[in-house]
């Protein structure tokens, strides 16, 4: 069974009335293309878009459960949406129906210092969590790089990663409990404030990264850590990609220190970004850069840590290691990394931000494979991203002289080549952005068939009518 | 006996009195009237014409004191410092205010040092304290987020530089009379270890600090070529193009265009912030503008908190449209 | 050749946020950094040293609490040779006059250099007066708003920004220059520089060391007095107009044109 075989019903005026009575008329958008349009897309470039028929803003779990029951009864697709900052087309309502806006469910419910947890509603902006925690000297470590825009509900649904995953891991590591509404409209509570819990199947972690196809969240309990008091960033210049990449496993394993972040940029990425930013850092001879962050409980500790890692980089062939221990300098080197995508957008407005992930030791092979594909198609493919996780944003950029139609004809071939090459070296399609609908045909092409079957079976068991975010991950 | 005089340091360029001098007259006249004393403009230059000097009287001065020598034609720090200092020592004014220009901000501290006078920088408000007659000098600090009022109870003269455009220039009143004194400084005051060897006029046609309208370019412009859109808007408004730090750092506009904590402070009649998010640092340089209009695609951008009207949309659509409509409105 | 660079420690302004309701700055336990504009002065000094044919020593001089040694170390990590800190309770509360006077006394102790460099102003006080006043105390020619400076035979050539353009001047002998941020792009400290700077000594000098009396430094000696501090609000009630699609855009632009007419701006 798949979403293509389900038939969905358009939303009738009776249903609109029922939902309007349930949520209040002001919490429904219907029949208003202008206001529905912003809910038709996310941040994935050039993807299919479609307006939802209705946007609903539930105020609590009970309202949400009732809404899902109506949708399930009427065979109306339901797509949950956080801030719409996803990069896989995951929140796009491909079959119309209802898009859930969590703008009203955006409260921080509890900060529990005794158990080191925070309980939040899914619509909370992720950066607000750490702002609320700062006075307590605590922090939530699972946040991704887009923390100022994205919501925690979306982060959990996508199992978001980010710049700090090397040391702290990704979102799922911090999710202790989820309250949710199942596709058939039951309220379900998974996990709790427990550090360990083997009481039954681990459905909690099944829900993490489920991209909204197995239900919608109403409450999330997150694990907290003490806030690091000091942090230093290093920018390490290497002559070649191979040298830079070879340094990563050494840093991770030989120094006895786990850095917070190890970001990688190839020459094309940093040179384009530096030119865009008018950054005059002397890096003409560099072929690759590593951006490494260390954090810790005090300045002395961090000083020791960056000394050790910096020396490792120099020993591994780094031609220079810059140290940024002030906000201004940290910002100066991080913006090179953050501006890569923006810089390429200026070069060409169409690009396909990919998210390949490979075993750390296979990064040189991944880089070589990407370069080969780049040469074959005559398309620039800058590579940058989270080297410490083997997670690279290889990003084919449309040559400015190409037509959009030509680009759209060739891009799927490029991506298919790339994903096959990555699978061959033990890698996979997405490290942190998810499959959504943008990458589902590639997943079907390279993933283990048994894995695909098991996913489908789970989906069918939990969502017999296929109403939850249909058309995502697989057909 | 009436108190000693209030002085302003008027400025000239190429023998013409600079407009900022007339703003100083507005300030100085008010102070002199409250103290019941004379307002005198000191002006350093090379033999300015009587007609030119008379404009200072027409606009409210009782007296003009012109230090005249070829060495004073352009602003050179040493002769300017020494001549002004000699005049102060000789005549003992009670108050001396100058504009917070490159000249004023350089000469005033160099003079205040040896005289042991108190000096307050970049004031936006000047008043006389009722019971003591002291000068109350109010200035923005910490990026304009705090205002501090400062006085100099014991030392004289009380010195301050005043932010350009923080008040209106004094109007000319026909028939006003006053005294013009010319003074030829002795040679030892005119010695300079600094020589002017070259001068290049500014690239942009109008300096942002003198413009009534500033169109500010921010990161939203995406690349340098797009700045042309802002230039076109500035042109129809007879304004100048300013820039956020980001836009200058990326080489889209030269540094003299930068507005903000590490650039210039401007307060034009109209400030149009385009694609400028409004960092604390940028706001510090423009939040005292009379009318602020913001154009930004991010409806949450902080700049909107400081704008009278905010347009949430794409600048590449809005800017040409606004330029065309203003041009049309001016035509009709 | 010897160059003295004046640096000030200021609260890190990037660590501050605006309180939207009161329009005031929230300083979140802001750590102290080198005044950002002083970094450009340090960079000018380093470039001059690198271009110089003779041996050149760069000294950074700062006045502040003992914790200000941190910013001097930061300067030394960039390549500055020595750090000198003027630190004494007697200095507390100095206004620009007293600060300039005290710094000038220190420069006399250290020996008059060939060049004194400072940033155009500090991002906290924003007066830009200390540098020029100090130049006057030392009887040095003061070149302010400097956008470029280089060594020439017997002195310096500098370009300074005036209201309407740039002027190039040449100076015979020693000088004091206040530089703009466009004078040079600061470098980043390297790992090697960081490690070297940790091992270096910083000279700390007191009022007594300088021979400066309490009549000339500190709050009581300062000619200016702060009478009051208040918080202005520049926040406006913004008329926010959506202008995403062409129809909205047209309406919004018309509203702006209308406002400009009302205000007599066109």
From TrEMBL, chain A:
Keyword Ubl conjugation: no
Superkingdom field: Bacteria
EC number: 1.1.3.15
Domain FAD-binding PCMH-type: 48-227
Pfam families reported for this sequence: FAD-oxidase_C, FAD_binding_4
Annotated SUPFAM superfamilies: FAD-binding/transporter-associated domain-like, FAD-linked oxidases, C-terminal domain
Assigned keywords, A-Z: FAD, Flavoprotein, Oxidoreductase
GO molecular function: (S)-2-hydroxy-acid oxidase activity; FAD binding
Stored InterPro entries: FAD-bd_oxidored_4_C, FAD-bd_PCMH, FAD-bd_PCMH-like_sf, FAD-bd_PCMH_sub1, FAD-bd_PCMH_sub2, FAD-linked_Oxase-like_C, FAD-linked_OxidoTrans_Type4, Oxid_FAD_bind_N
Cofactor (UniProt): FAD
The name this protein goes by in its record: Glycolate oxidase
From TrEMBL, chain B:
Pfam families: ETF (PF01012), ETF_alpha (PF00766)
Residue positions binding FAD: 219, 244-245, 258-262, 275-282, 296
MF GO annotations: electron transfer activity; flavin adenine dinucleotide binding
Region ranges (Disordered): 155-182
Record's keyword terms, sorted: Electron transport, FAD, Flavoprotein, Transport
Gene3D superfamilies: HUPs (3.40.50.620), TPP-binding domain (3.40.50.1220)
Cofactor: FAD
InterPro entries: DHS-like_NAD/FAD-binding_dom (IPR029035), ETF_a/b_N (IPR014730), ETF_a/FixB (IPR001308), ETF_alpha_N (IPR033947), ETF_asu_C (IPR014731), ETF_asu_C_CS (IPR018206), Rossmann-like_a/b/a_fold (IPR014729)
Any one Gene Ontology BP term: fatty acid beta-oxidation using acyl-CoA dehydrogenase
PROSITE patterns assigned to the protein according to its UniProt record, in alphabetical order: ETF_ALPHA
Residue intervals of the Electron transfer flavoprotein alpha/beta-subunit N-terminal domain: 6-194
Domain of life where this protein originates: Bacteria
This protein's record includes keyword Electron transport: yes
Cofactor binding note: Binds 1 FAD per dimer.
Family from the record: Belongs to the ETF alpha-subunit/FixB family.
This protein's name: Electron transfer flavoprotein alpha subunit
Automatic annotation (TrEMBL), chain C:
Gene3D superfamilies linked to this entry: HUPs
Domain Electron transfer flavoprotein alpha/beta-subunit N-terminal: from-to ranges: 22-214
Pfam families (UniProt xref): ETF
Signal peptide annotation: none
Keywords carried by this UniProt record: Electron transport, Transport
Example GO molecular function: electron transfer activity
SMART domains: ETF
PANTHER family: ELECTRON TRANSFER FLAVOPROTEIN BETA-SUBUNIT (PTHR21294), PROTEIN FIXA (PTHR21294:SF17)
Protein name in the entry: Electron transfer flavoprotein beta subunit
Species this protein is from: Oligosphaera ethanolica
């Amino acid at each position: 069974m798949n979403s293509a075989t389900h038939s969905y019903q358009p939303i009738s005026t009776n249903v609109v009335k029922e939902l309007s009575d349930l949520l209040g008329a002001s919490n429904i958008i219907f029949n208003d293309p202008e206001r529905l349009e912003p809910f038709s897309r996310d941040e994935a470039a050039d993807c299919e878009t479609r307006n939802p028929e209705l946007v609903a803003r539930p105020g609590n779990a009970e309202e949400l459960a009732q809404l899902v029951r109506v949708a399930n009864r009427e065979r109306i697709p339901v797509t949950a949406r956080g801030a719409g900052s996803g990069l896989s087309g995951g929140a796009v309502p491909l079959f119309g129906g209802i898009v859930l806006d969590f703008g009203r469910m955006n409260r921080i419910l509890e900060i529990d210092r005794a158990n080191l947890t925070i309980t939040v509603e899914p619509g909370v902006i992720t950066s607000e969590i750490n702002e609320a925690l700062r006075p307590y000297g605590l922090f939530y470590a699972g946040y991704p790089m887009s923390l100022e825009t994205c919501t925690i509900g979306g982060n959990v649904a996508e199992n978001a990663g980010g710049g700090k995953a090397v040391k702290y891991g990704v979102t799922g590591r911090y999710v202790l409990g989820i309250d949710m509404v199942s596709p058939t409209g039951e309220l379900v509570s998974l996990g709790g404030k427990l550090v360990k819990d083997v009481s039954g199947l681990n459905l909690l972690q099944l829900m993490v990264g489920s991209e909204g196809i197995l239900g919608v969240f109403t409450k999330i309990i997150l694990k907290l850590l003490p806030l690091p008091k000091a942090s230093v960033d290093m920018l390490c210049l290497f002559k070649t990609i191979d040298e830079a990449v070879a340094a990563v496993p050494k840093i991770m394993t030989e120094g006895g220190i786990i850095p917070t972040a190890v970001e990688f940029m190839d020459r094309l990425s940093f040179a384009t970004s530096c030119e865009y930013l008018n950054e005059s850092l002397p890096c003409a001879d560099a072929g690759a850069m590593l951006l490494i962050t260390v954090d810790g409980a005090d300045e002395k500790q961090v000083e020791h840590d960056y000394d050790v890692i910096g020396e490792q980089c120099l020993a591994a062939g780094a031609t220079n290691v810059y140290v940024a221990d002030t906000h201004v300098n940290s910002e100066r080197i991080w913006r090179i990394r953050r501006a890569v995508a923006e810089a390429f957008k200026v070069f060409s407005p169409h690009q396909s931000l990919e998210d390949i992930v490979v075993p750390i030791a296979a990064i040189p092979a991944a880089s070589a494979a990407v370069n080969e594909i780049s040469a074959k198609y005559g398309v620039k493919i800058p590579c940058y991203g989270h080297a410490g996780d083997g997670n690279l944003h290889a990003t084919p950029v449309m040559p400015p002289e190409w037509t959009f139609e030509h680009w759209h004809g060739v891009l799927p071939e490029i991506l298919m080549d790339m994903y096959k090459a990555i699978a061959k070296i033990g890698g996979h399609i997405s490290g942190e952005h998810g499959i959504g609908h943008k990458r589902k045909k590639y997943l079907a092409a390279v993933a283990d068939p048994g894995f695909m079957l098991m996913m489908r079976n789970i989906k069918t068991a939990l969502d017999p009518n296929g109403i939850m975010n249909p058309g995502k991950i697989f057909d | 006996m009436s108190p000693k005089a209030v002085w302003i340091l008027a400025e000239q360029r190429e023998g013409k009195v600079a407009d900022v001098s007339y703003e100083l007259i507005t300030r100085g006249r008010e102070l002199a009237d409250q103290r019941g004393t004379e307002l005198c403009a000191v002006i350093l230059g090379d033999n300015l014409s009587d007609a030119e000097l008379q404009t200072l009287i027409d606009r409210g001065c009782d007296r003009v004191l012109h230090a005249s020598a070829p060495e004073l034609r352009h602003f050179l720090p040493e002769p300017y410092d020494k001549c002004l200092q000699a005049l102060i020592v000789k005549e003992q004014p009670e108050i001396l205010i100058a504009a917070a220009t490159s000249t004023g901000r350089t000469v005033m501290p160099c003079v205040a040092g040896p005289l042991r006078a108190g000096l307050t920088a970049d004031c936006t408000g000047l008043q006389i304290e009722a019971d003591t007659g002291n000068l109350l000098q109010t200035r923005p600090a910490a990026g304009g987020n705090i205002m501090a009022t400062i006085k100099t109870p014991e030392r004289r003269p009380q010195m301050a530089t005043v932010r350009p455009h923080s008040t209106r220039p004094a109007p000319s009143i026909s028939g006003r009379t006053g005294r013009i004194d010319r003074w030829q400084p002795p040679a030892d005051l005119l010695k300079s270890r600094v020589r002017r060897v070259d001068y290049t006029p500014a690239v942009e046609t109008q300096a942002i600090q003198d413009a009534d309208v500033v169109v500010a370019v921010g990161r939203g412009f995406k690349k340098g070529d797009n700045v042309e859109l802002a230039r076109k808007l500035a042109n129809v408004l007879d304004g100048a193009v300013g820039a956020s730090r980001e836009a200058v750092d990326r080489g889209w506009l030269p540094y003299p265009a930068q507005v903000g904590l590490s650039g210039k402070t401007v307060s034009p009649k109209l400030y149009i912030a385009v694609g400028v998010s409004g960092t604390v640092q940028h706001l510090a340089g423009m939040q005292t503008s009379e009318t602020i209009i913001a154009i930004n695609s991010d409806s949450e951008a902080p700049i909107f908190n400081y704008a009278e009207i905010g347009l949430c949309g794409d600048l590449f659509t809005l800017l040409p449209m606004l330029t065309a409509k203003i041009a049309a409105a001016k035509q009709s | 050749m010897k160059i003295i660079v004046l640096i000030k420690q200021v609260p890190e302004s990037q660590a501050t946020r605006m309180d939207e309701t009161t329009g005031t700055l929230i300083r979140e336990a802001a750590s102290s950094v080198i005044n950002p504009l002083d970094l450009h002065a340090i960079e000018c000094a380093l470039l001059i040293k690198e271009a110089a044919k003779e041996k050149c020593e760069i000294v950074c001089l700062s006045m502040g609490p003992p914790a200000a040694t941190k910013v001097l170390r930061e300067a030394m990590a960039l390549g500055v040779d020595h750090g000198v800190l003027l630190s004494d309770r007697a200095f507390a509360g100095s206004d620009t006059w007293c600060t300039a006077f005290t710094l000038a006394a220190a420069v006399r102790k250290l020996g008059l250099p060939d060049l004194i460099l400072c940033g155009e102003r500090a991002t906290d006080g924003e007066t830009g007066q200390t540098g020029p006043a100090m130049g006057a105390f030392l009887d040095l020619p003061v070149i302010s708003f400097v956008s470029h400076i280089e060594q020439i035979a017997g002195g310096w050539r500098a370009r300074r920004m005036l209201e309407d353009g740039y002027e190039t001047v040449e100076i015979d002998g020693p000088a004091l220059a206040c530089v703009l941020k466009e004078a040079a792009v600061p470098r980043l400290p390297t790992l090697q520089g960081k490690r070297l700077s940790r091992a270096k000594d910083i000279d700390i000098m007191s009022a007594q060391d300088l021979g400066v009396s309490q009549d000339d430094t500190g709050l009581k000696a300062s000619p200016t007095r702060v009478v009051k501090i208040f918080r202005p609000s520049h926040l406006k009630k913004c008329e926010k107009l959506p202008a995403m699609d062409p129809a909205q855009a047209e309406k919004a632009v018309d509203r702006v044109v209308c406002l400009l007419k009302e205000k007599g701006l066109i």
